[in-house]
Amino acid sequence: MADAEEIETVTSQEEGKRVSVVAPDSDTVDDASTEAQYYKYFALYTYHANRPSPTSTPNHEGNDGQQGTVADFLQKEAVVNSDLSISVIATDLSAEHETELRSCIAKRLSRGTVYSGSGNVASMPLGISEESSYCYYCLLRQPEQETVSMEGDGSGVTSREYVVCFVTNIESVLDLFRIELENFSHGLLSLVDTSLTEIDHIQRYLTDWYQESVEFISRSVEKLQMDVVYLIHAAMMDYKLDIQGGDDNLRKDINKLFQCCSLAGLLQHSKISESEAGNKSPETDPLVDVASDTNQATTSTKTQTVCTLTITDDKVSFGEEEYNEFCENWAKALCKGSMDNPVYLRQVIENFKLKAIQDMNTLKRLIRQAENDHYALYRSCIFLRNCGNGAILLQTAKMEDHTLTSHDSQQVLKALQEFIEEKGGFSNRTR
Predict the structure, then answer these.
(1) Which residues pair with 44 in a beta bridge?
(2) pTM, whole model, 2 decimals?
(3) d(CA 43, CA 203)
(4) Which of 10, 14, 133, 134 sits CB 3.0–4.6 Å from 126 for a disulfide?
(5) Exposed / middle / buried, residue 15 (Cβ in 10 Å: 0-12, 13-18, 19+)
């Protein structure tokens, strides 16, 4: 993207050199804000699934040949599924396009390659327009659903499941918002039952799929404006968000944005065990956090900090009005672009999250080198002081599981914190 806007910030170069984080150009990103350029449809199907009986499940040890291999099980399931039954419950597609979609979904189900719990995105020739159509589809199964034995040799069971589909011509929408679409899809399980008595309710629920799963990001950024910098900082610091005021829909929107900006789902956090920390007990030799606003140390067993967001009719205010250079660049990229383009906003978020992970990997590499190299310890300190995101990276390094748990690594982290504290901490900003 030659015309993409560049936001100058410190990258993961060990010497703290400045390069650019590229924010997608809102003019070149798929414009999901213009009604004429995209379409969105939904469909919900009931699926009578035929599966091999539990006694036919694969066993890797064989059990004297009484149970087959994984390949045998999958082949048998494909054969059993050849006479599957799939019927439409609710849709806003035309009859012709719905028939094409049902045919595409049935082919995938008959192969036995669609599993419940997570969705898939695929290109499908539905004939809605000259361009390809993209479909997110997810197989839903009630957690305690009754099954009945199949007729014949009794070698399988049949159960009633559901397939929800969301169709658009912008593939990036379905890919970028896959988590939200999955959560929205599973929300259907509380609405469907074996008698399907709430068809109108289901239809209204599905009609809002794009508004609830995609457009929340635009509504949240438009409401927060540059105050979104505090939300980003709180999410990166793994704070707990407490929203006061506002209506239920706005609180849900902002909570979704908060989850989008968090790295909690990408990093594993846990306390350092005694054996991993070189037989040093956390109670006797605690790892300390740098509290950059008070320059006070707290143990790693502290309770989760709460960030309070108060919403009124004319403004929003945060109880923790603190941020750093990295979060400020992130917020500027969100607010400078097209706020009514959710694809652009989500791409900005994912770019900055990727940048934070790259910087985290650089810091971890430097810390491991610093176990035996004092110059690497110096470079780690320079990197943290110059990257614009030092406090967040250092806290994440302390808490991430199974990476920097050796005694030497912990000593390096402790030395870095003590030195940075002596020099006045990190230069976080407040308003």
Answers:
(1) 90, 164
(2) 0.77
(3) 9
(4) 133
(5) exposed
d(C-alpha 239, C-alpha 267), whole Å: 15
Please answer whether residues 164 and 207 qualify as being in contact, where contact means their C-beta atoms are separated by less than 8 angstroms.
Answer: no
CA-wise closest residue to 429 among 344, 309, 325, 301:
325
5-10/296-299 β-pairing: unpaired
Q: Tokens in use for 288?
A: 């300390």
Mean pLDDT lowest among 137-141, 195-199, 220-224? 195-199
Place of tokens 């320079």: 382
The pLDDT of residue 27 is above 60: no
Cβ neighbours of 63 (radius 10 Å):
9
Q: What is the Cβ-side half-sphere exposure of residue 205, based on CA atoms within 13 angstroms? A: 20
Average pLDDT in the 165-171 region?
92
For residue 222, give the amino acid letter: E
Beta bridge partners of 306: 240
- At residue 417, what is the residue type? Q
- Residue 76 token pair: 């048998």
> Among all chains, which residue has been given the structure tokens 């790892």?
287
Q: pLDDT per residue over 105-143, tens digit each?
A: 998 888 877 777 789 999 998 988 888 899 999 999 877
Paired with 134 in beta bridges are 123, 168
